[in-house]
Protein 1
Amino acid sequence: METTPLPQNAEISGNVLFYAKPEPLNKEAHSKLGLMQVDKPFGFASTTNVVPLTVTEFAPASLSYPIIFAGEQLQPLAVMAVNQGENLAINPDGSVAADAYLPAYVRRYPFVLAGDDQGERLIVCIDVASSLIKENGDIPMFENGEPTEYTKGCIQFCNDFEAERQRTDNFVNVLKEHDLFETKQATFTPRNGDGTFGEPQVIAEYFAVSEEKLLALPADKFIALRDNGALSQIYAHLVSLNGWDKLIAKTLIKNAAAA
């Protein structure tokens, strides 16, 4: 894994959520750039309703959001709003709700590790299109041709995040091997003007761990999940699914206030 600035001609591939123009961090190209000190820096995530999570974040995130699995790779996601294009925890002004957990995926921005064009290594990048990065910004990225302590800390955070991402992939693979996933739906039953209830509406379909399948595992496999720490993360995920009602309630309150 590459953790130092690369030559200016290095190239990266793929798209990464939030990053409009990621470039390999380079002391020649970015010597004058710095990070702006902003009290509310997270506005870039205010229109995203789902954000990737690592498995070690399940416990704290479960108090704020439903945690689901989605896509072909069954990636864990924190559902931060029911509707696309909004986020009920991160406001357009960049502030974060006091009771909301902020995923590490958001906190690492504008730094990121990205694959090179050969797909053989990860390189440290910054999103040069970010409003948090300016020429002669408050916190320099380089001093005397070397990364500052702040930059080194950001790079270390990205490395730690990558390690957690790999641990998360292993966790998901274990769940797949045990055939623990099932499809689920989040539903909402509207109340009519006369006080009666309408037909339930499906607001989301996703993958989740089946508690029935989990409890049906042979004792040795269940104990193995307990001993390797996976079981506690599974239950954090299952508990988090109770958060759909809270998320729907927040949506209704927001819609009523807008109306």
Protein 2
Amino acid sequence: MSNTYQTEAGQLSGAVLFYSRPEPLSRDAHANLGLRRIDKPFAFAAGSQVVPLTVAEFQASSLSYPIIFAGEQYQPLAVMGINASANMFIQPDGVFEPGVYIPAYIRRYPFVLANDSTREQLVVCIDREAPMLGDLPDVAFFDAAGEPTEYTKNCIQFCNDFEVEVRRTESFVTLLRDLDLFETRTATFTPQMADGSAGPPQTIAEYFAVSDAKLKALPSEKIFELMQNGALSQIYAHLSSLLGWDRLIALTVARQGVPQPANLN
């Protein structure tokens, strides 16, 4: 599917996490616009409990977050918080905890590719409400001749590459569904009572994950096929990432108290 950065403001379909007012990037409307260096650069994601992931990010993300599947489409998500509107990995100064993997979905902001229903193509957009946008920028979107700067070209390429990975991720999820590998799981928290004893376990999230039993029950030739196409390593990255629930729960308790049931769809 083709895309462009120069277009009239058409009807853009679909709501996208983080983006309040996406506008097609235009040399006429945004000639003087660009990015400014601001305090709290990732504050826009501080209220997000979950962030979409592509399958190419599973291994890097597994070291930082639980990776789950949620919703009717089994969307892969990095779980960054449990209590409502709280990302445990973004510090009060608006930057990520050191050493934490930052998902591409966040790194592409304020750029995004959006569907233009009038032209049936993907259009490069920016979130006009993004706090880092402004005139007299530190990094301009267009040069004096009205052409995209190298920075803008790199951002557009990043968005294009991201869309390719989204398609690959959809194929990966379809493969898992066709093999009937998903099962419903729960994440639980056992509170400590005032007398030091363990209280009744509390369910804090329900989600989809790959079933160990179903995976082991696959024929050996199917396991070999998954190994050959790289899917098996991504499955194991997902499974190992689920050990991160304990870390996330402990972090939540230390900062906010008892975790509350999360809506991870």
